[in-house]
Amino acid sequence: MNVLAYLIPISLFLGTVGLIAFVYTVRSNQYDDPEGDARRILNTDYDDKPKR
Amino acid sequence: MTATMRPPSASACPACVAAPAAEALAESAAPTEAQIALSLPTIHCAACISKVEKGLAAHPGVRSARVNLTLKRASIEAEPDVTAQEMAEYVESLGYEAHELDAGTLNATATDKAGRDLLMRLAVAGFASMNVMLLSVSVWSGAEAATRDMFHWISAAIALPTIAFSGQPFFRNAWGALRQARLNMDVPITLAILLAVVTSLWETALSGEHAYFDAALTLTFFLLAGRYLDHRTRAIARSAAEELTALEVPRALRVNGGIEEQVNVAELAVGDRVLVRPGGRMPVDGVIIEGMSELDRSLLTGETLPVLAQPGQEVSAGEVNLTGPLTVQARAVGRDTSLHQMADLVAIAESGRSRYTSLADKAAKLYAPGVHILSALAFVGWYLYTFDLRTALNIAAAVLIITCPCALGLAVPAVTTAASGRLFRRGMLIKHETALERLAEVDAVVFDKTGTLTSGAPELEHPGTYPKQPMRVAYALAQGSSHPLARALARAAEARGLTPARVSEITEVPGYGAKGMWNGQEVRLGRASWTGATPGAQTAAHLSIEGQAPVSFTFVDQLRDGAEEAVAALQAAGKKTYLMSGDTTPAVEALAKRLGITHWMAEALPADKSARIQALTEEGARVLMVGDGLNDTAALAAAHVSISPASALDAARVASDIVLLGGDLSPISEACDTARSATRRIRENFRIATVYNVIAVPLAVAGLCSPLIAALAMSASSITVSLNALRLR
């Protein structure tokens, strides 16, 4: 049963990391142009100076 | 790489991310610059993006340019002296179609705040429900005593803040309804969530066996998913509708002491002199003080033939100037123009329509009191039976959770999202929330003629039958004119492979036509009275060559794509079709015959149209009105449901429930079918939800409902309902 003392905090921590990552992506406008962003990754122009 | 996705100000610190308001404040303090938005309907690939962005960045005066491929839009930040028109022309020169968008109209929806808020709450609820479910599964599979209590306490620690955050949309709505002494769907939802949390806490404190934290959280999650779907559907419709409005950039040329300046229509005042060039639309109501021309009034009255315009004549906003420049003195501007007053009348007519209650509202009206009564009865019954407050409250909470309208809350949004998405791909935009349900009930369809069934652009009738010589002369005269008949003539001559005759000294006489010299004789193309021809009933342009009998070119209105298919399909589906137009009797009669419409009405005034629709409604018909002009707006608002093409006037688009984005009319009958199957799916979903309640509620009332059964039943019903909705796609 002692393993639970590790597993529960770990699962909660990982879930929180995912949640924070999601909140970050929403706040930084990453869902505004999903189609355009999918194409932009094919283009080398944006790697050095990404735009908002 | 994500760390550098933002400008330096973000510096990858979480506090900055958490305080976007401060950042926005810092940004707005920057010196003002021109914000330009362009609509780029033809871009589609990575190469298009970089070509447009690089091209724009290289243009002097442009600070930054960003293309949004999803919205097919470019936003440009430029020096204040760079105009949007200039940018649109420049992008056209790069090889992409570009239209200027009114930045003022678009700014309102720059970021979808409400959608983001819902998404955030949805994400939190999803995170919490998954973790709590994990703990609950351990409890269900046999965790006992201290372990179970610990799991319950951890669940409580996760659930309480989550419910406080994610449940807010429901709590707010429920509170709003209760304050006005009404019941809506959110009241049982709120009560169920709160009761579940409170009894679970109580049970946990007394180290009881059952806790419903997982049920409360999944309930919140599923219902938020429904809310979000609903919001997305409307947001897409709203942004597309706004883009349509923004395409009409309201600008006018003001003449001030001989100096012309371009101003926004909003800046015009009564008494200003406005110059309207050929091809331009009247920005104001007023009187012509200078110039001679012809006016296309088809959008306002439905007349296809241009009318003569001369000094002293009154003009209304929305009319199109055709042949010569006109100077107009403004008598009414902005909200006072007849165009806007008509739109305001529509608002009054529309209030009648809002009386339609959607299926979901009807269901909620039955549902909300029923659930509360049932739960109260269960509580009272069990209390009288056991005299144990704890058991009675537990069972009452279980009843509320089990009956909570998870499926009901998802049923309507899931179906409407699927149906609107399908229609959107076919080029139809659903603007009104109950439009689909109303469209499903339609049994009579009323069409407007000009601009709806016909494109409003005339076409030369039987172009092959005219002798070549006069047609070549007419071609030469027509080439330089922007008059719709002249353009149609030139198009037909070109299609026949003719070359224009050598006509010299061509001059356009505004209001009459064009004249020139050919082989030493004067030739004229234009009105019957001016060329000496006898006017006929049909739309015609006349050519006179000195010493010869005049030739009359007759025109027919070109049918819009899909008009014949749409009418035929609607008639085949057993719907009555009508044609109502402000145009002349022969023109309307000919079109009605061509399309096989037996009931038609010509020379109808706007009031006639709406009166006829009201009469039809009183006879028990559910009328779908399809129209585009200002003369249709009252009828559009009076009808049970209405459709207007994207080319319609803004006022007509505002009044209609559905906008046809393409020029093709054929999706109309398909839309009726989709609407009918959508309504059928909604009803099916209600039935599924009812069946599940009929099975689960007796279990809950009997006190047999463990949290496991509650969670299973709730998820199962939500998923069935969503899958059923997906069948529509």
UniProtKB/TrEMBL annotation, chain A:
<keyword id="KW-1133">Transmembrane helix</keyword>
<dbReference type="InterPro" id="IPR004714">
    <property type="entry name" value="Cyt_oxidase_maturation_cbb3"/>
</dbReference>
<protein>
    <submittedName>
        <fullName>Cbb3-type cytochrome oxidase assembly protein CcoS</fullName>
    </submittedName>
</protein>
<keyword id="KW-0812">Transmembrane</keyword>
<keyword id="KW-0472">Membrane</keyword>
<feature type="transmembrane region" description="Helical">
    <location>
        <begin position="6"/>
        <end position="26"/>
    </location>
</feature>
<dbReference type="Pfam" id="PF03597">
    <property type="entry name" value="FixS"/>
</dbReference>
From TrEMBL, chain B:
<keyword id="KW-0813">Transport</keyword>
<dbReference type="InterPro" id="IPR023214">
    <property type="entry name" value="HAD_sf"/>
</dbReference>
<dbReference type="InterPro" id="IPR027256">
    <property type="entry name" value="P-typ_ATPase_IB"/>
</dbReference>
<keyword id="KW-0479">Metal-binding</keyword>
<dbReference type="InterPro" id="IPR036163">
    <property type="entry name" value="HMA_dom_sf"/>
</dbReference>
<dbReference type="InterPro" id="IPR006121">
    <property type="entry name" value="HMA_dom"/>
</dbReference>
<keyword id="KW-0472">Membrane</keyword>
<feature type="transmembrane region" description="Helical">
    <location>
        <begin position="183"/>
        <end position="205"/>
    </location>
</feature>
<dbReference type="GO" id="GO:0016887">
    <property type="term" value="F:ATP hydrolysis activity"/>
</dbReference>
<keyword id="KW-0067">ATP-binding</keyword>
<feature type="transmembrane region" description="Helical">
    <location>
        <begin position="151"/>
        <end position="171"/>
    </location>
</feature>
<keyword id="KW-0460">Magnesium</keyword>
<dbReference type="InterPro" id="IPR018303">
    <property type="entry name" value="ATPase_P-typ_P_site"/>
</dbReference>
<feature type="transmembrane region" description="Helical">
    <location>
        <begin position="391"/>
        <end position="419"/>
    </location>
</feature>
<keyword id="KW-0812">Transmembrane</keyword>
<dbReference type="InterPro" id="IPR059000">
    <property type="entry name" value="ATPase_P-type_domA"/>
</dbReference>
<keyword id="KW-0547">Nucleotide-binding</keyword>
<feature type="domain" description="HMA">
    <location>
        <begin position="34"/>
        <end position="99"/>
    </location>
</feature>
<dbReference type="GO" id="GO:0055070">
    <property type="term" value="P:copper ion homeostasis"/>
</dbReference>
<keyword id="KW-1278">Translocase</keyword>
<dbReference type="GO" id="GO:0005524">
    <property type="term" value="F:ATP binding"/>
</dbReference>
<dbReference type="Pfam" id="PF00702">
    <property type="entry name" value="Hydrolase"/>
</dbReference>
